[in-house]
Design brief:
Distance between the termini of chain A: 110 Å
Number of helices of chain B: 3
Strand order of the largest sheet of chain B: 3-9-8-5-6-7
Distance between the termini of chain B: 33 Å
Main location (chain B): cytoplasm
CATH topology of chain B: Phosphatidylethanolamine-binding Protein
Protein name (chain B): Protein TERMINAL FLOWER 1
Shape of chain B: globular
Number of helices of chain A: 10
Structural class of chain A: mainly alpha
CATH superfamily of chain B: PEBP-like
Largest sheet of chain A: none
Helix content of chain A: over 70%
Number of strands of chain A: 0
Radius of gyration of chain B: 15 Å
Largest interface: A-B, 15 and 18 residues
Structural class of chain B: mainly beta
Radius of gyration of chain A: 39 Å
CATH architecture of chain B: Alpha-Beta Complex
InterPro entries (chain B): PEBP, PEBP-like_sf, PEBP_euk, Phosphatidylethanolamine-bd_CS
GO cellular component, one term (chain B): cytoplasm
Strand content of chain B: 25-35%
Number of strands of chain B: 9
Helix content of chain B: under 10%
Oligomer: heterodimer
Strand content of chain A: under 5%
Order of helices and strands of chain A: HHHHHHHHHH
Shape of chain A: rod-shaped
Largest sheet of chain B: 6 strands, mixed
Pfam family, one (chain B): PBP
CATH class of chain B: Alpha Beta
């Protein structure tokens, strides 16, 4: 119980701290999966909240290998250091990521420096990796298109239609909402009219009733006098 | 009839019956539409099952020498968000003498029960005062794509003298109210 709580804390911490690094994120979540189900779910929540959808899919591919390689507590050290070892924008292939982790263990390097020193052109590196991403996981390419430079031509079309559809749906929804409001307003107006109508009718009927009462009272009086006169003979 | 100001058609304006189907008009005749003694009021919801047989339509106005035409349409076919078949014609009765009801008129298009499939539909009853008694045989190849405005122009009916609408949706639809 205690240890699981500890794992929980660690994983949460890592999920927060490494949100910029994609590959390490996926590693962290798969680790969580190994350790405890609850932690896993929490990590997922964090990932989903960050709308980093495609890491999940990446992750599935890496999972078995990581399971085999790092089944123990020892990796938690590496794991915590990982975010600092990884260059944030280019997610390196899974094998290299684990190697790096193993090599640099507890020697954190600032990520931007790594990027600059290892690659002369950051942009190209980025493009390459994202294309790898595309190749390995076609479903993720729409998300990766958000990062710019790559796959514009291929991404454009489906992205546009998707945006278009969303826009249309939004417009439709607004129209529907407006109709709903109008319906409600019409209904309310009608009820108000009915109330006004009933009120005037009620007032009219009340007056009529009063008049009838008075008429009845005077008639009764007349009747009474008549009755008395008719019963007079005795 | 005394308190028939412009307020009376407010619900028709809010419900966009005036606009979608009719032009602005001043109601001058009282019309009562009721299904099984339940009076139809603007914007109220009725269930398709409760409107399956034709309603009683009373005209409290004019006299026996004046004649009225009643039209019932659905401007939300097939669905209110894209009513590309509008308007759908449900009923036409002509030559209804004033102070009577629709059964005294001539039914030229039989009553078709409302069967809204997509969304919430409006069903509108429109009453016109005829200039004279006349027999019309409207040329209606299909109940879809009917146009009340055009119909009024074609038969020289002028502006409506009364209108009322109710809402209806599928019997099984999820209702929030």
């Amino acid at each position: 119980m205690l240890s699981s709580a500890k794992h929980n804390k660690i994983n949460n911490h890592s999920a927060f701290s490494i949100s910029s690094s994609s590959s390490s994120l996926s590693t962290s979540s798969s680790l969580g999966h190994n350790k405890s189900q609850v932690t896993m779910e929490e990590v997922w929540k964090e990932i989903n909240l960050g709308s980093l959808h495609y890491h999940r899919q990446l992750n599935i591919g890496h999972e078995p290998m990581l399971k085999n390689q790092n089944p123990n507590n020892s990796i938690f050290q590496d794991f915590l250091n990982m975010p600092l070892n990884q260059p944030p924008p280019p997610p390196p292939p899974p094998s290299s990521s684990t190697i790096v982790t193993a090599l640099y263990g507890s020697l954190p390097l600032p990520p931007p420096a790594t990027v600059l020193s290892l690659n002369s052109g950051v942009g190209f590196e980025f493009l390459d990796t994202t294309e790898n991403l595309l190749a390995s996981n076609p479903r993720s390419f729409e998300e990766s298109a958000k990062f710019g430079c790559l796959g514009k031509k291929r991404g454009q079309d489906s992205d546009d239609t998707r945006g278009d559809r969303r826009y249309k749906r939004m417009i439709k929804n607004r129209e529907s909402a407006a109709r709903s409001r109008a319906r409600k307003q019409a209904y309310t107006n009608e009820l108000e009219l009915e109330i006004a109508h009933l009120q005037t009718e009620n007032a009219r009927l009340k007056i009529q009733q009063e008049q009838l009462k008075i008429a009845e009272a005077t008639q009764n009086q007349v009747k009474k006098t008549l009755q008395r006169s008719s019963t007079a003979p005795f | 009839m005394e308190n028939m100001g412009t307020r009376v058609i407010e619900p028709l304006i809010m419900g966009r019956v005036v606009g979608d189907v009719l032009d602005f008009f001043t109601p001058t005749t009282k019309m009562n539409v009721s299904y099984n003694k339940k009076q139809v009021s603007n914007g109220h919801e009725l269930f398709p099952s409760s409107v399956s047989s034709k309603p009683r339509v009373e005209i409290h106005g004019g006299d026996l020498r004046s004649f009225f035409t009643l039209v019932m349409i659905d401007p939300d076919v097939p669905g209110p968000s894209d009513p590309f078949l509008k308007e759908h014609l449900h009923w036409i009765v002509t030559n209804i003498p004033g102070t009577t009801d629709a059964t005294f008129g001539k039914e030229v298009v039989s009553y078709e029960l409302p069967r809204p499939s997509i969304g919430i539909h409006r069903f509108v009853f429109v009453l016109f005062r005829q200039k004279q008694r006349r027999v019309i045989f409207p040329n209606i190849p299909s109940r879809d794509h009917f146009n009340t405005r055009k119909f009024a122009v074609e038969y020289d009916l002028g502006l409506p003298v009364a209108a009322v609408f109710f809402n209806a949706q599928r019997e099984t639809a999820a209702r929030k109210r």
